[in-house]
Design brief:
single chain, mainly alpha, Sufe protein. Chain: A, 5 helices, 3 strands, 45% helix, Putative SufE-like protein, Fe-S_metab-assoc_dom
Amino acid sequence: MTLPAPLADVVSEFAEVQGQDKLKLLLEFADELPPLPPELHDAALEPVPECQSPLFLHVDARDPQRVRLHFSAPPEAPTTRGLASILAAGLDEQPAAAILAVPDDFYTELGLAALISPLRLRGMSAMLARIKRQLRAAA
């Protein structure tokens, strides 16, 4: 599987831990979700209704060589925040072509399927699908 280097690093981090430690790592990612930049606080962010918790995203593809991704999820939704943070850490500032080439099911490599519900994983898949849709629309 070919992933942008930052996303491959995240997948490697998850591969290095087992069982409940994967959940701890996911919660660490939740704590690291970058805040929205001030100019996006009043912007119309795209909701991702497939997520079990409220999640909104913004894709800035003005520079296709350096796509900016921004996510908003409440602190009381740590799993959703963690999944969004994985995408932020792995795909923010990457070229549009590299993001579009990410396999839709890359998240299976994280090894979270036995620890979190399939609905939550589908939420991550929906986030990636919306990012890709916006990139295709911007091209």
